[in-house]
Amino acid sequence: MLQIQNNMEILSNLTSKFPTFMLTSIPGLESVHAWISIPFCCLYTVALSGNSMILFVVITQQSLHEPMYYFLSMLSAADLGLTLSTMSTTLGILWFDAREISLDTCIVQMFFLHGFTIIECGVLVAMAFDRYVAICDPLRYTAILTNSRIIQMGLLMIIRTVVLIVPLLLLLKPLYFCRVNVLSHSYCYYPDVIKLACSDTRANSICGIIDLFLTTGVDILCIILSYILIVRSVLHIASPEERHKVFSTCVSHIGALTIFYIPMISLSLVHRYSRSAPRVVHSLIANIYLLLPPVLNPIIYSVKTKQIRKVIFSLLLTK
To answer: So where does this one cross the membrane (predicted)?
Structure first.
């Protein structure tokens, strides 16, 4: 009995049910955090101003009240959410060396971080469907993508996010965590947090795999199917010029898919298979994963979408 009591005391000294995690910026560059914060601030400014501009333009310009631009505004809203969900902790480390974060605060951050990631996945699927209908069934475009249907699609994205994320995060509460809780990034990332748990995480792993399949897995399959149908339809067009014109309407969406999925999959692979990789690699990929889509999406759609570009230029020139 005494041995069991001693073991329990040792376990309680080594673990905690209410841990404090230590966030990490860029390992080895702690002495130049103030200088590193400058490019981060620039990127955050570009992301916030660019996506806010897209939202403002789509909301205020009657000529842009079409399905394609509604989905673009949803993408900008998701990018704004992703940016804001991690900006406070990232800049807090760089400016004030504020590295500590509680489990409850970590769970709240992960809800918004992973929640907006799932919403962005859903928006990219909706945009693929929009391109499919516009190219393969253009005469019924407005009949299929009505305002009420777009609202329903948006609500479905939010409901899916809440239903999948909340149980996953609640399963963190009963876990015990090791005393040394140093995270790999400047924000809480679920795979990063779960590997620090000292208790059984099988339920968390199963729930995480189910969520991954119902989000990234299903969404990628839907996007691939949409583009297979689009390519098949375009190949039936006789004129090369018309083919190029039709394909060009998909360039922005393909760009958004590339800058979203490649960093996300890279970060997942690094966490799963490259534990021996330098910590700076983890940090670099983690920051690219969060900053690249919000920064580049407004630029891509402003450059490649004539209507958006025209409205933005007219607004800037009038001021």
So the answer is: 32-58, 70-95, 107-129, 150-172, 212-234, 246-264, 284-303
